[in-house]
């Protein structure tokens, strides 16, 4: 309850600001319609009009809520007009990219921690890779993979992987190096092999860092999947909904896809947080 109240307070404040901002954003169109009709708008008429326009610059929250309700609850999930259908298309690429990024990130982190050459050579490139704008890189990845006959889910997953492996590398390197010198010396006095030191000391110590990294990686992976849908001209997925909404000026559709993407990320991050609690509790680590 103590954590729910601040969240509800923030959501209420955002909703209030959203409603207030919708009035001046949509007012020009309301005044234009009134001028052509030869009527004068009162404040109540202005507010009512700006919160109910068909193609507003900034839709009111209840308009987005109605759109989400109509495209989730009132549509069959196999319908191409269902937001759940489009969410699943994006989520499947997100999960595949997240899995690939996690495996790649952990493997690179282990190599960096245990191999001096990789530490000196790979880590700078890992950091440099994230300076390339994904919006510029995504079309090239799509074109190259299509040229060798790879299309569909995998190109989007690779873009997701590109964004999600970085936080895993950084978090795992820090986690694997987190044991103190005294603990490492103790493992040495017990004649522990490097493999035993890894499995018995370094890996357990890295778990809190890993789960924190996975939360960031999941959010980044979702962004990657959505960005990956944009240059392909995809007809399914949340990115496709955003693209179609921008083509036809359907701002309500755009905002509903954005809210759905945010909700999807929140659910997946919460799921990772739940797994984190269970795993760390079983390992005897308080969080």
What gross morphology would you assign?
elongated
Percentage of residues in DSSP E strands: under 5%
Taken in chain order, the helices and strands follow as HHHHHHHHHHH
Number of domains: 2
Q: Remind me, CATH topology of the largest domain?
A: MetI-like fold
Give the % helix: over 70%
Instruction: List segments where confidence is low: pLDDT < 50 over at least 5 consecutive residues.
Output: none
CATH domain class of the largest domain: Mainly Alpha
Main pleated sheet: none
Description:
By secondary structure, this protein is mainly alpha-helical. It folds into two domains: 3-58, no CATH class; 83-283, MetI-like (MetI-like fold, Orthogonal Bundle). Helices cover 78% and strands 0% of the residues. It contains eleven helices and no strands. The protein has helices at residues 4-37, 43-50, 61-72, 83-114, 116-129, 134-147, 153-176, 181-189, 194-229, 238-247, 251-282. Helix 4 (83-114) runs antiparallel to helix 9 and helix 10 (238-247) packs antiparallel against helix 11. The longest helix has 36 residues, at 194-229. The protein is elongated. The model has no long low-confidence stretch (mean pLDDT 89).
Short description:
The chain is mostly helical and 287 residues long. The longest helix has 36 residues, at 194-229.
List the helices and strands and how they pair.
Blueprint: H1 4-37, H2 43-50, H3 61-72, H4 83-114, H5 116-129, H6 134-147, H7 153-176, H8 181-189, H9 194-229, H10 238-247, H11 251-282
Keywords, please?
287 residues, mainly alpha, elongated
């Amino acid at each position: 309850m103590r954590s729910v109240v601040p969240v509800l307070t923030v959501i209420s404040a955002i909703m209030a600001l959203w409603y207030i901002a919708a009035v001046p954003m949509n007012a020009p169109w309301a005044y234009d319609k009134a001028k052509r009709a030869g009527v004068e708008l009162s404040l109540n008429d202005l507010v009512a009009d700006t919160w109910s326009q068909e193609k507003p610059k900034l839709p009111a929250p209840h308009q987005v809520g109605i759109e989400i309700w109509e495209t989730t609850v009132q549509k069959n999930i196999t319908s191409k007009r269902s937001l759940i259908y489009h969410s699943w298309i994006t989520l499947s690429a997100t999960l595949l990219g997240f899995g690939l990024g996690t495996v790649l990130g952990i493997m690179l982190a282990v190599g960096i921690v245990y191999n001096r050459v990789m530490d000196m050579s790979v880590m700078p490139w890992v950091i440099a890779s994230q300076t390339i704008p994904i919006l510029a890189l995504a079309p090239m990845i799509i074109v190259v993979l299509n040229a060798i006959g790879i299309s569909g889910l995998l190109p989007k997953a690779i873009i997701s992987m590109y964004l999600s492996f970085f936080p895993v590398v950084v978090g795992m390197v820090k986690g694997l190096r987190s044991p103190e010198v005294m603990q490492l010396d103790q493992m040495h006095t017990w004649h522990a092999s490097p493999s035993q030191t890894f499995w018995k000391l370094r890996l357990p110590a890295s778990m809190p860092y890993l789960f924190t990294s996975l939360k960031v990686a999941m959010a980044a992976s979702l962004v990657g999947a959505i960005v990956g849908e944009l240059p392909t001209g995809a007809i399914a997925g949340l990115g496709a909904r955003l693209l179609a909404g921008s083509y036809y000026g359907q701002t309500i559709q755009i905002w509903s896809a954005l809210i759905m993407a945010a909700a999807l990320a929140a659910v997946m991050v919460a799921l990772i947080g739940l797994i984190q609690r269970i795993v760390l509790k079983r390992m005897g680590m308080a969080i």
